[in-house]
Design goal:
Length: 275
């Protein structure tokens, strides 16, 4: 009993830490958006007057990069871009995978075999390879990067909802609804959908954590968002040339920001999974 209670307490604490990390990131992004909207601080020309590669100081807590841009500012803006792309990509993947999974699992037959073959083929391709190919196809941009990532994660949502639908449709209440004359759309939306959503929050958070890393990888390869958009992977790529000269801050802070966001999302996912 002690070990069960201890395990539950650890899981609960992990989930709380994960949510706390996410809240901190969201608050930083909201504050930055408010500053930009009301123009409380003018960031537009500050880099022109800053020393390049200035070390962390009271003026620039995280130092400056090779163009004199404040690393803290770029890191926080990178959080905004990461959250935006991840939210869009997971939403697009859910929009694609949810209806296809429901329909495939409910009707079965040739439709199910065809969709399953397509999704299994996509799922079999390594994530980073597929995301690089999709990024080449769609080109650079926030929405384009989200589309590239959504193709990567759509098969997971398809498989989740297809398998859950196959299990649920054999239940007695589904048979009763069919006999009573309910059409397939009503059965899917009213009786099946609410009962297949239980594992969704776990998959959402774990995919979001993975999407942050994939987006960073695309940015590092120069395939994510445009070069003028602050993004952690792109900043890490630019920081590589400065590392041998002892300039560590341009790589440290974007790297830490990516690490803690992935950690927070992973903690939330693990906490929900073991709940």
């Amino acid at each position: 009993m002690f070990f069960l209670n201890s395990s539950f307490s650890v899981t609960k604490n992990i989930r709380k830490v994960g949510f706390l990390i996410l809240i901190i990131y969201i608050l930083f992004v909201i504050v930055l958006q408010v500053i930009d909207f009301f123009n409380l601080i003018d960031f537009s020309d500050t880099s022109l007057n800053n020393q390049i590669y200035a070390p962390p100081s009271l003026k620039h807590f995280c130092g400056t990069d090779r163009l004199g841009r404040d690393v803290c500012q770029r890191t926080i803006r990178g959080a905004s871009i990461a959250l935006e792309v991840v939210f869009l990509s997971i939403s697009f993947a859910l929009i694609i995978g949810l209806p296809l999974g429901l329909v495939s699992g409910y009707f079965g037959g040739i439709l199910d075999k065809s969709l399953s073959l397509l999704m299994d083929t996509i799922f079999a391709i390594p994530v980073i390879l597929l995301s690089v190919v999709m990024a080449f196809v769609f080109g650079k941009g926030i929405v384009n990067a989200a589309f590239a990532l959504c193709i990567v994660y759509s098969p997971q949502y398809f498989r989740l909802f297809r398998n859950q639908t196959i299990l649920v449709k054999s239940e007695t209440y589904i048979e009763a609804a069919t006999i009573s004359g309910a059409n397939f759309l009503r059965i899917l939306l009213k009786y099946i959908l609410p009962n297949v959503l239980t594992p969704l929050p776990i998959l959402l958070t774990l995919n979001a954590a993975d999407a942050v890393l994939v987006l960073g990888s695309l940015g590092f390869l120069g395939l994510g968002v445009p070069a003028d958009v602050p993004e952690w992977g792109g900043d890490l790529n630019l920081a590589l040339s400065a590392l041998p000269t002892g300039i560590w801050w341009t790589a440290l802070f974007p790297g830490l920001a990516m690490f803690f966001l992935v950690l927070g999302l992973s903690f939330v996912g693990e906490g929900l999974e073991k709940n």
